[in-house]
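> agent: user asked for a holo structure of the chain below bound to 2-acetamido-2-deoxy-beta-D-glucopyranose. Plan: (1) validate sequence alphabet, (2) canonicalize SMILES, (3) run complex prediction with ligand conditioning, (4) return tokens. Step 1... ok. Step 2... ok. Step 3 dispatched.
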Amino acid sequence: MCRCWGPYRGWVPCAPARWFFLSFVCAAPFGLLGEETRQVYMEVISGSPNPQNLLHIRAVGTNSTLHYVWSVLGPPAVVLVGTNTNQSVLRVNWSLLLSPDPDGGLMVLPKNSIQFSSALIFTRLLEFNSTKEPEGAAQPTGKPYPPYSLAEFSWNNITHSLDLATLSAVFQGHPADDPTGAFTNGSLAFKVQAFNGPGRPAQPPRLLHSADACQLEVSLAGASPRGNRSLFGLEVATLGIGPDCPTVKELYSIDDEYAPAVFQLNQVLWGSSPSGFMQWRPVAFSQKQRAGESALSCHASFLHPTLAYSLPHSPIVQAFFGSPNNFCAFNLTFGAPTGPGYWNQHYLSWSMLLGIGIPPVDALSPLVLGIMAVALGTPGLMLLGGGLFLLLRHKQYSEYQSIN
Ligand SMILES: *[C@@H]1O[C@H](CO)[C@@H](O)[C@H](O)[C@H]1NC(C)=O
Ligand SMILES: *[C@@H]1O[C@H](CO)[C@@H](O)[C@H](O)[C@H]1NC(C)=O
Ligand SMILES: *[C@@H]1O[C@H](CO)[C@@H](O)[C@H](O)[C@H]1NC(C)=O
Ligand SMILES: *[C@@H]1O[C@H](CO)[C@@H](O)[C@H](O)[C@H]1NC(C)=O
Ligand SMILES: *[C@@H]1O[C@H](CO)[C@@H](O)[C@H](O)[C@H]1NC(C)=O
Ligand SMILES: *[C@@H]1O[C@H](CO)[C@@H](O)[C@H](O)[C@H]1NC(C)=O
Ligand SMILES: *[C@@H]1O[C@H](CO)[C@@H](O)[C@H](O)[C@H]1NC(C)=O
Ligand SMILES: *[C@@H]1O[C@H](CO)[C@@H](O)[C@H](O)[C@H]1NC(C)=O
């Protein structure tokens, strides 16, 4: 994560306009990143005698613990909780959790250590009958087929996919009832991965992560589409902050080695930072070998308030939050009627980051910085040196101010 000293007191994320000067300053102190590590514990909590599982990620820092509880009881969902102690624990009461009224079945204790909590629910897999000639702006993706409710999927036993070396686990499922046989050879998978420290995966879209976040990779593979050029999508619901929905922002970056040709980062924030955040690049891939040729666009609709009864019921959300009535939802659609698509190889994957704290901000990669330095040459370096000098003076000035 790259943070810069700003004109205000404290650390602030780099604003893109300042990158030219500031990325030199921020790319340098990699030592600082060492403090941003967490001890991550990943466990499968089984409800005996009930054959049900929860995946609990507990990320412990010096002064804080983050809890991520993933479950496929009902639709795939995660409850995320940030606490201000390194001692907080998760309590599961299975008899309550599996009862018709699961309120209180999931708790993080001590309650007064909770600084932030919310949830994300993946409610439906959408499929659209797209055609090469779009039917107009109203429905550029084509008419929707009846969606697959993810609450009616049956899922694998997560214990068998838990990999403590990579801190990952995979929920893999298919419709419990599949009359057309569309999922005979297919499945939908949610791969969850946690991190001990900051970094960036080798595979595109190479989202920058911190120890405060988990990555989710959703992939659909081998399922028979209902149309020749079916587009797929995902409906996602979350909890608002009071009556308001979380804010959605599109951040822009310059073209970079890490994300060639993708200039945008979509970000959902549950409140003013630090709170919860969700980030993704608006790109999905139509091949396991992720490259430019297999990249699809990913479109997100507006996040808007949604009535609880229109969404599949999530036991873990009710178990932790009681019966919230401030759901918000949005749709993600992957691909366009033209260009590559799921139809090429019956494969689709998309990744996002979910975290608590300050969202990671991309800086320029060392390679690009190197190219810039060479391209700018000596006069440019002198100019940058001058910029740094002004900046450091500014830093001293702001420190001076904060002492007063
Ligand atoms: C998953 O597998 C483990 C070990 O094989 C077993 O103990 C557990 O009960 C299984 N859970 C479910 C939900 O089937
Ligand atoms: C946990 O917090 C206590 C006090 O708040 C501190 O003394 C201790 O060193 C912390 N432990 C770790 C592992 O950070
Ligand atoms: C942890 O909290 C203590 C006391 O509140 C504070 O002095 C210390 O700087 C904090 N450490 C970190 C890493 O935030
Ligand atoms: C679980 O909740 C039920 C109902 O509130 C309660 O009777 C039971 O003691 C709880 N179990 C545990 C282990 O706390
Ligand atoms: C899909 O769209 C095509 C072209 O508009 C149409 O011919 C076909 O009947 C549609 N299929 C379904 C299942 O709606
Ligand atoms: C599933 O795979 C088998 C063997 O590869 C094939 O014969 C069958 O047609 C496939 N079924 C569907 C619905 O794609
Ligand atoms: C789908 O493709 C098949 C074979 O390629 C073709 O026979 C059929 O007419 C196509 N259907 C539509 C709706 O375009
Ligand atoms: C997502 O798309 C489906 C199909 O078009 C629609 O029925 C549903 O209301 C949409 N959900 C949201 C939250 O916009």
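> agent: step 4 complete. Summary for user: Residues 129, 131, 143, 227 surround 2-acetamido-2-deoxy-beta-D-glucopyranose (ligand 5) (CB under 6 Å). The chain is about 15% helix and 40% strand.
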